[in-house]
Design a protein that fits this description.
This protein is mostly beta strands. Helices cover 13% and strands 44% of the residues. Strands 1, 4, 14, 15, 16, 17, 18, 19 and 20 form a 9-stranded antiparallel sheet that branches. The chain binds zinc ion.
């Protein structure tokens, strides 16, 4: 069978904090004016990606994982371990925290934990996000939450396009209004909401909080993980590797011209964020352009990408 890149059909999730940037930026056919998430590369049951091209067209990525493990190098993971999303935070997201693998396995029906990371595609001027907290002990954290001392508790950081943040499980965090982000995360949908700014949903109810679980999983005191990008320049490509962690590696590839790659043992998740070009493999050329997401299976070995484009590339 001829190996091909696996192009995926994005799935959209409406959220009360969502907007229309996914359409404006990427031309996606979004379901409403409150579209918060594009699940771009997903094998999670809450939004499974479907293959669009070639021999496997119509199958889900999760089916492929089970039926053709050779495409992924016969992995040990039970399920496809990663999830790539693009998020349009048109309003502040609720302040939240995610469990790690051990806690999620025990308390969330065997789900994975959720360590995630963010590449800021675009944001409004002076945009911020919430990243970490100022409590020194669990007692202090509990007390400040109970007393609603949110301004003292929550740390805010300024963000700008091109920034990258690693958000390990146990980190209190929230995207704030006016932010478009590519998120690479463990394939998990478990979130504990800590604070929702006292907002009401469409039915006039306060959204549910999960304070007990949040207190159990939050890292205290907060320790920020500083990441230092490694920049590598090769012929016609600059590769910026933001993170190489136990869960995933994430890089930005900026291509101008024809760039050749050699990758034998890993499968790669690719998202085109800017520009256009072609993915070339074994005499075939596959057009790519911004907003397109695909998986490069194991075994391709040599391939090339030509054009003027910027991609986020990840692998477990
Ligand atoms: Zn999160």
């Amino acid at each position: 069978m001829q190996l091909q890149p696996l192009f995926l059909k994005p799935i959209f999730q409406e959220r009360i904090w969502g907007g229309t940037l996914l359409k404006k930026h990427y031309g996606y056919n979004i379901p409403s004016e409150k579209t918060g998430e594009c699940w771009a590369i997903s094998a999670h049951p809450n939004g499974p990606s479907i293959i669009e091209n070639g021999h496997f067209a119509g199958k889900t990525l999760a089916e492929l994982w089970m039926e053709y493990p050779e495409l992924f190098g016969h992995p040990l993971d039970k399920a496809f371990p990663l999830l790539t999303k693009i998020l349009d935070a048109n309003m502040d997201l609720s302040v939240q925290v995610h469990p790690d693998d051990t806690y999620a396995k025990k308390n969330e029906n065997g789900e994975l934990g959720k360590t995630e990371c963010w590449y800021i595609i675009d944001c409004k001027e002076d945009a911020e996000m919430i990243f970490g907290h100022n409590a020194q002990t669990k007692e202090e954290l509990e007390e400040m939450i109970a007393q609603g001392k949110w301004n003292d508790l929550l740390r805010r950081v300024k963000i700008k396009p091109g920034d990258f943040f690693y958000v390990p499980s146990g980190t209190i965090h929230a995207l704030c209004e006016g932010t478009l982000v590519l998120e690479t995360q463990q394939s998990s949908d478990t979130t504990y909401r800590v604070y929702d700014y006292g907002r009401h949903d469409e039915k006039g109810n306060l959204r549910e909080l999960h304070l007990n679980k949040a207190l159990e999983v939050t890292q205290v005191p907060h320790k920020a993980v500083k990441t230092t990008p490694i920049i590598e320049t090769k012929e016609n490509v600059t590769i910026t590797t933001f993170i190489q962690s136990e869960f995933f590696s994430v890089s930005k590839w900026e291509i101008s011209g024809i760039a050749k790659f050699s990758e034998g043992v890993r499968y790669l998740l690719m998202s085109v964020l800017k520009g256009e070009g072609t993915f070339q493999y074994d005499g075939h050329a596959y057009p790519i352009k911004k907003g397109v997401h695909f998986v490069v299976p194991v075994g391709m070995g040599e391939f090339a990408i030509s054009g003027n484009c910027e991609l986020i590339v990840s692998h477990p």
